[in-house]
Design a protein that fits this description.
Elements (H helix, E strand, L loop, with lengths): L1 H26 L6 H31 L3 H6 L2 H30 L5 H18 L1 H10 L6
Length: 145
């Protein structure tokens, strides 16, 4: 039962994180007004909270659930998934900083700055696609070393 609870929680959190990321991608547009920037900054806070919860639940699942840590520590796809998740996290830092700066400045961002942030968001979405691929391979026993 614990394994099922961790799996459900992990999957729901990952879907929620993708929803927040996609919402940011849709909302960050040229011609944004100050009120939109404030909303995006609030949404981005949830991005960080969800990412942290995914790590806690995911590693709890790997350590305490059915397969146990030994299964995961010797799986290349597990580490590829962790690497992709960390890369997504690193790519999320510059947009987060920009959202904070824009909100504190209380002015609408320039279109060139918005375009730069959108490039980061697109890269995050592209890398996000690797997560279910690596998870599916890992769950089927591929990648063991």
């Amino acid at each position: 039962m614990l394994d099922l609870a961790f799996a459900i929680g992990h999957h729901l959190l990952v879907f929620a994180l993708f929803g927040v990321l996609f919402a940011e991608l849709i909302a960050v547009r040229r011609g944004m007004v100050v009120s939109t920037v404030a909303r995006i900054a609030a949404v981005d806070l949830w991005y960080g909270i969800l990412a942290g919860l995914i790590l806690v639940v995911g590693f709890s699942r790997a350590i305490f659930a059915a397969k146990g840590w030994f299964y995961y520590e010797h799986n290349g796809f597990f580490w590829a998934k962790i690497g992709a998740f960390l890369a997504i996290g690193l790519l999320s830092v510059p947009p987060t900083i920009r959202f904070i700066v824009w909100r504190r400045a209380g002015v609408s961002p320039r279109d060139t700055a918005v375009a730069a942030v959108r490039r980061y968001l697109y890269a995050e979405v592209a890398l996000f696609a690797l997560l279910p691929i690596f998870a599916a391979a890992m769950a089927r026993g591929y990648g063991e070393f």
